[in-house]
Structures are given as C-alpha cells and as structure tokens.
Amino acid sequence: MQYPAIITQEGKQTLAEFPDCPGCQTFADSGEDILDLAQEALRSWLEVHLEDGAVPPRPTVRQRWPRGATILLVPVPAKLAVALCVRWARQEAGLSQAELAKKMGVSQQQAAKLEQPETNPSVETLAKVARALERTVDLQLVPAAHVFRAAKRRPGAAKREAARR
Prior knowledge:
Layout: E1 2-10, E2 13-17, E3 25-28, H1 34-51, E4 70-75, H2 78-93, H3 97-104, H4 108-113, H5 123-132, E5 147-149, H6 157-164
Antiparallel strand pairs: 1-2, 1-4, 2-3, 4-5
Helix pairs in contact: 1-2
C-alpha cells in the first residue's frame, strides 16, 4: 500500500504533502532524505487516526496531479497496512468490533487488537477475519516506492494561455 505525496521545493527545503491525508506534510532540509521523512509523517498521521477510532482515507488510485508535479509514492509499513485494511473492511461491512468478534468467535478485545498499528496477525488470523467479513485475503508483493512526474504542459502552452488573457 502506498500513498501519493506531492513534492515541491520551498526555498532550500523540500516539502512532501499528502493530498489524501489532510494536514499530513513534512519538510526536508538539504541532505535529508524526503522519503524517510515522508514515511515517518505518514505513519504517524495514520496511526493517530486509527488510535482515535477514525477511519483514515484510502490512498488515491488515480488523481489529476498539478502539471509537472513530482509525485512520490510512499509505502505504508506492512503491520499498519494490515490494521488499515481490517478497519476499512469492517467499516464497509457495517460491523462494530464487537460484532466482528462475535462472527470470528473471539473476544471484542482480540478483534480490536487487529486494528492496532503494531499488531502482527498471522495469515491464518487474517483468513478468519476475511471469512467473518465475507471476503478473501489477497496478498501482494509490489515494487518499492518510486517517483514520477505528472504530465507537463505542451511546449508553447504558457505563451498561448498568456495571449488569451
């Protein structure tokens, strides 16, 4: 799971902003790795929302980015991604943690623990959650985070726009 961050230069610093996560941003000074700082900012933002009982937004799959923008796809740590997926699936099913626990045949505390960022459930436990939510588990190994640029304007577009004004 990866969240997109828009990367911009702000003077001598590099800014990473997460459009899917309002208020989640970080700056990197020269020589600092923006990916490391962005991962930490995103992880903290998502954990706080989970701990507060909120349902963090899913990462955007496709979006119109500012033209020429640099987009950094920031990975979410696996344990945190599992907690998010369980929270999203439970919410979509319209179940409380107690209702999910009952369907799984476990205590409410055990079901709640699955949505905590540092929990490391077994694949067998995830399969049990999936059955209770009438879903299946789909595990993937995906390429590491990467950077891409949104489409740039065609040559001469700025001159044509200025002439229209």
